[in-house]
Amino acid sequence: MKKATIQLETLTCPSCAQKIEGTVKSLTGIEIESLKVLFNSSKVKFNFDDEKISIKEIENAISKLGYEDKKSKINEL
Amino acid sequence: MQRFILKKKNQITLIIAIFIVLAYVSEFVFKNHEIAFGSLVIASVMGVLPIAIQAYQALRVKVISIDLLVTIAVTGAFIIKNLEESAIVTFLFLFGEFLEQRTLNKTRSAIKSLTEMAPESALKQMENGEFIEVEVDEVEEGDILLVKTGAKIPVDGTVLIGEGHINEASITGEPVPASKKKDSKVYAGTILENGTIQIVANRVGEDTTFGKIIELVEEAQDSKSEAERFIDKFSKYYTPAVLILAIIVWLITRDTEIAIIILVLGCPGALVIGVPVSNVAGIGNGAKNGILLKGSEVIQDFSKTDTIVFDKTGTLTMGNPKVADKEIYTNKEDDIDKILSYLASVENESDHPLAKAIIEHLGNIELYEVEKTDVVKGGGIVARVNGHRIAVGNVTLMQQEKVILDEQVSADIAKFEANGNSLVLTSIDGKLKVLMGIRDQIRPGVKMELQKLKKLGVKSLVLLSGDNQGTVDLVANELGLTEAHGHMLPEDKAAYIEKLQAKGHIVAFVGDGVNDSPSLAIAQIGIAMGNGTDVAIETSDVVLMNSDLSRLPHALGLVKATANNMRQNIVIAIGVVVVLLASVFLSEWMNMSIGMLVHEGSILVVILNGMRLLRYKLRYRKSKMELKTTNN
Lengths: 77, 632
Description:
The complex is a heterodimer.
Chain A: E1 2-8, H1 14-26, E2 30-38, E3 43-48, H2 55-64, E4 69-76
Chain B: H1 2-7, H2 9-28, H3 33-60, H4 66-79, H5 83-107, H6 109-115, E1 121-125, E2 131-135, E3 144-147, E4 156-161, E5 164-167, H7 169-172, E6 178-180, E7 185-186, E8 191-195, E9 197-203, H8 209-222, H9 226-253, H10 256-265, H11 269-288, E10 291-293, H12 296-303, E11 307-311, E12 322-328, H13 336-347, H14 353-362, E13 370-376, E14 380-385, E15 388-393, H15 395-400, H16 407-418, E16 422-428, E17 431-439, H17 446-455, E18 460-464, H18 469-479, E19 483-485, H19 490-502, E20 507-511, H20 517-522, E21 525-529, H21 534-539, E22 542-544, H22 551-586, H23 592-611, H24 616-631
Helix pairs in contact in B: 2-3, 2-5, 3-4, 3-5, 4-5, 4-10, 5-23, 6-11, 8-11, 9-10, 9-11, 10-22, 10-23, 11-22, 11-23, 12-22, 22-23
């Protein structure tokens, strides 16, 4: 398991946060309890299983919604 | 394609505006219906695209969003050939989003300026001994780093070589630079004002105090209070409800016009954004002023506080106690130097402020090896030195040790207590040898700050202290406190707070965050006055970064203003929706464009209202300056 923090471009509508949360939740390999979308700091934090999904795939899913990620940070758990 | 459209939203908004102007010009100036018609079609279609995409994306994750309401409304207007409306509504909606983004960024600016203080690079010692600039993420614990004058300390660490002055305002809020030499602790995000030092990294990245502060503030901004969770739930059902209402109205009246107006007017925008905006601005203002507020629940509770409980040591007083009175009880065979040496040796084992005062008082003195140190909670220390049993502590400890306190001693104790001293008694092998009275001074300005708290509506100020009643009374009288109790152990304080709460008081506890964690946890609001220490940050609800009480009135004033601001925003948001929906049925002038204008306007109003909180400080500073001049 790894812990990731993705910094997105500024989020402006609360429904954006809902969309991102819903999308990331639906991916396999994400620990749902750990998922947090921080609307004001425009960050997504979650733990994920790097054997089931790569950070690239997660980033792609988010950028498909139209939110560009600026920087991803991954730490070992 | 979707991504491209969403990214170019601002440009699209501009193009729509141009087409709308073009349509009006050709309609009224050149009387050309075809070009006007064409322009409006283009504007409507272009405008609805990004909105429809957003609506679709939300639907895919089972969220009925505002975008969906607007998309249906605009499509409806388009179908009934009300092109003017469809074009203008999409424009207003997109332009509103653009303005929201700009203003929201402003409300978040306080936090942004905080995160921008985070260090980015470090000079790291490589294997060959040279220092090379690396990104701060590449620094690991144990690395040796060089910090030059004017640079930011990149990580939490300990000074190895060199000395200098460090501005620690980002951690402690203290503007006066602190002097650092070998073995001093330094903190990430602070600035070396002069000198050059080498440090060893102890904690890096998010584990540093600075990293934790940022994380805490970021999470606090997004934490939700009861009221907000209610609004969230409400808007989750509200938006679909508006959709259903519009459908029902359409089925009954068969009037597409009214149905789509309802869709536009029912958008819950201001309601969803209003409360978080106040929250963000309030927490941001706090962070800038050395006050960490852990979320909006804390803001709500703190704003209702009517009782503030203080723990004396280091809060109301200087926290730098000194030995003021001393009495030594000796026989002929006693060696006074030896007794004092034993006392110093035992106290050297402790980091209690009273122990520090005694060591400072005794100065350079021979120290012995101390064995079997036993710390008696709320009592003192018992240890073995040179084969003697030495007990150093308060009267309770002496009673436990069965030390006889004769009449002379009891009279001295009473005298010392009346002078406002804390007592430290020393017994050797069960016989009392030394009585010391240690006194602390009240911090300058505390009295004024406490009066400000009362003006802000705090009814009682309570002091609970481990010190003797004499000391406590002295402080209480001087500061005009409501209640003051001495001889209290940490668990007594917690129990007392529970008693206050049982009487219906909302209690805030102000402590130093280390030895008062039970009270910090039990009080509705735990306020830690610390130098940004870990424990303080983790166990409390509010952290005053500097051990400076003047932050407390600002904190209380700020949370009250923030709580008020939230209430105003809720009233504005609900009021606007109610008025708009009512006017659909009761007035002639209501149409989709006006509805959208008012709706977007109300969103901007709540954001701007929230932004007022960012400036809360200015008003406070002003009143503080006025007080200062009257003092002079």
